[in-house]
């Protein structure tokens, strides 16, 4: 994964989440003998990758440009666009002022004033910069000016990127009788170091 200087925190979060995902997948294999644990880990991860790959292929065949996660997020933000008022200040740089009106059930009844530079894709709410997809303010400007919002969605949210994530292949393990002869040292565990109880 190629990272820019501002993507480090995002990569750290993604790494943590991936660790938790695989930890959940392999949780039931922890107390197995080591050989069985390694085999089970191999087969489960292979299944995990192939299933995700097939999902990605299906989405690509259906011409879904972005992942369902991003589609749902953008649809939720499009709902907010109707409560935004957009005012243009600079045609060249694309300076906009967006006033947001909070919903009736919101505890904050005061409107929020957002400054936006469309040419740079920057917004004072910073959500587009932090999350990698357009905030409701940028979507409001896109709607007002008939501009395609997809330019503000980062590439790692596309279906192609999703497919690339799960593109790695695993290869079947040969039967033990077909393994090449091993001539290295034989490692024998110490009985005194075996853990008899869990925890």
From TrEMBL:
Per UniProt, the keywords (alphabetical) are: Metal-binding, Zinc, Zinc-finger
Identify the domain of life: Eukaryota
Asked if Zinc is a keyword of the record, the answer is yes
Q: What is this protein called?
A: SWIM-type domain-containing protein
Q: Which GO terms describe its molecular function?
A: zinc ion binding
- Which SMART domains does the record cross-reference, listed alphabetically? ZnF_PMZ
Q: Which segments constitute the SWIM-type domain?
A: 112-146
């Amino acid at each position: 994964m190629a990272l820019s200087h501002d993507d480090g925190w995002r990569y750290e979060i993604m790494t943590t989440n991936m660790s938790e995902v695989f930890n959940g997948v392999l949780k039931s294999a922890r107390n197995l003998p080591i050989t069985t644990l390694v085999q089970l880990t191999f087969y489960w991860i292979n299944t995990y990758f192939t299933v995700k790959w097939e999902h990605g292929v299906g989405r690509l065949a259906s011409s879904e440009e972005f992942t369902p996660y991003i589609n749902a997020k953008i649809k939720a933000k499009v709902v907010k666009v109707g409560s935004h008022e957009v005012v243009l200040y600079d045609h060249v740089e694309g300076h906009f002022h967006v006033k947001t009106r909070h919903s009736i059930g919101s505890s904050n009844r005061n409107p929020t004033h957002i400054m936006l530079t469309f040419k740079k894709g920057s917004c004072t709410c910073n959500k587009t910069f932090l999350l990698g997809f357009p905030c409701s303010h940028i979507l409001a400007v896109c709607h007002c000016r008939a501009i395609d919002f997809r330019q503000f969605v980062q590439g790692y949210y596309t279906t192609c990127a999703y497919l690339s994530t799960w593109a790695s292949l695993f290869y079947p393990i040969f039967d033990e009788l077909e393994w090449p002869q091993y001539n290295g040292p034989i490692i024998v565990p110490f009985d005194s170091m075996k853990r008899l109880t869990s925890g």
